[in-house]
Amino acid sequence: MKKEIGYLDPWMDEESEFERICLLCTEPRVPSGITKAGRFFCQTCQREWILEKRKIPRIGRNVLNSDEKTAFLLENLSLFNSALGLDDLMFRFSELISDRLKKDKIAIFITNLELGEIKLAHYYSKQKHLQRVFKRISLDYDLSYGILVEAMAKREPCYYKFSDQSHPFYSFYSKLTGTKSQLVLPILYANIAVGMITIDYEDPNTLDYIEDEEILKIVVGQFAVSLRNSLLFSKSKNQSKHFRSLHTAALTLSQLYLNNHNEMIRMILLTLSGIVDSTISCLIEIPPNVSKAKVFKVNRDLENYELKTQTETIEINELNSIIHAKEIITIDPNKIPIFQTLGISGKESIIIPVNLENQTICIFILAKDETRFPHEEIEALNAFVSLARITMENSNLYQNLSNKERLEKEIEIAKEIQSNLLPRNTPEAEGFSFGGLMVPARGIGGDYYDFILSPNRNELFVCIGDVSGKGVAAGLVMATVRTILHSLVRVKDSPWEILNDINNYLYSSYRDAITPRFMSMILIRWNLISDEVEVSGAGHGNFYHYQVQTNSLSSIETGGVILGISPDISRFKNESKLYFKAGDTILLYTDGVTEALNASEKQFGELSLENSFFRNINLEPKKILENIYLDLKEFVKEQEQHDDITMVAVRKI
């Protein structure tokens, strides 16, 4: 047998007592022949591999024997059967692979054929800065990108050198990571590529990829199933979030903005851009028998979380290319001249036409800088625009009400929407107890308080604020600030940065108004893990901190400046930190509490508030606030309430 295989001749004399083993399957078999680059074909595992002579069979650096393969697969199955979110799934899978392959740099790409893009969804490396840099990288599903897209299209693994690729992406990637070559394995679900996993090598001629590929093949199929399920769950979760947002937004629009057309349009555009994370949202409004159309625009800076609104006019004859649209269409904004005039650019735009009963033509336009609009976002946009259309129709009808009817309707609507915007339930944060109370003056208030628990349940934001003025106008500002605040707390950690962004909105939106709108606020960020509390103030005054250990009450002055007065409040920056222990309680309040007057024109005052708070400190926070209010009512008797009365209490249990 040996004489028939030429490459064994040099070892004939010394090899009679040895066996040759396949480093992949570890079985002692004589190969059938030599192939290129000194590798052999193993008759046992039917694969091309390296053969090595040993007295004792030895496994390669990473190659697994049959028992280890089974153990490795079971280890992965335990991961894939877990109820993990998309980010956790990718992190744990890449961590497991990194540990098994002893590789530092692993990337997971996810394919979205609907959008025609491949997104670098996760990059695992001990160099944490690389993970941040790669967070937003995406490729067009276009063969011009080279081997990565080719591997996805062919649905086959491949190993390649970066020096062989001409697309600029590979040069950028190589300089950033030091990668010289890469192994690519498509992640296939039902023979459709849902993504790919890549291993980076700093050696352009490594042979490690051969063993790495064999190990990855063991589990990539199971990972494909888990990844597909996680993507579907994430998609359904986003759809659910969209339609919950639609419900809330529809309620807000239908009940709050009927008597303020321009603010109604701004809120519609702000909500639209929030649903799809678009950089610009625009409404072109064309009433019947006019020569010029009105254009409302909201620009969102997604990097700095800033908003800019503007209103302008445009000649109707310049809109001929889009004015006759009858249904939703997506389009390249760079191919439409009028879009350049309107300042609309990006990778893709969507046009949504709406015709009102009074013959007004409305054209909504949204644009994205780097991505396209997926189907579920288009569905959500279409649903919201339908709701917005009802709001605009109701607004037109509302303008025809008599002054008396309008006033009665205004009060009714404002009271209802305000009650819906304030927290209905306290957050479910283990180890804490909450209380909130608001009694508006004249039925409609400008005060605001809120509890916002972070999605990971590790942070709690507590705020209280007071808008200048009363009635629907103040309620309008309160509702808008609430919307902005709920968005900002998810992306910014610093209370001061959030207050600064709210100031920018109030100043830019109301500086030219007949009646400018200002707002004081205290914003607290409570780390529920470390119990560290960060506080920033915006001209709202102080709050109280009861410390159970010393049985003492401290007045904490926050400082700052009222929001909306100045375009730049950086010189008023204030940040302080507090630490809480079990039993400690804080009390926040608006000036409607301390400035409540009795028949003798005497104020309730801070001393009475402190005494009432201290006297009721052993009660639950909600009961504390109720008893303070009873003390206040006892003080003012039948005297008319001239300002909103709002209080918030939080206790660490």
From TrEMBL:
Pfam families: SpoIIE (PF07228)
InterPro entries: Bact_Sigma-Reg (IPR052016), GAF-like_dom_sf (IPR029016), PPM-type-like_dom_sf (IPR036457), PPM-type_phosphatase-like_dom (IPR001932)
Domain PPM-type phosphatase positions: 429-652
Keywords: Hydrolase
PANTHER family reported in the protein's UniProt record: STAGE II SPORULATION PROTEIN E (PTHR43156:SF2), STAGE II SPORULATION PROTEIN E-RELATED (PTHR43156)
Identification of the protein by name: Serine/threonine protein phosphatase
Species for this entry: Leptospira bouyouniensis
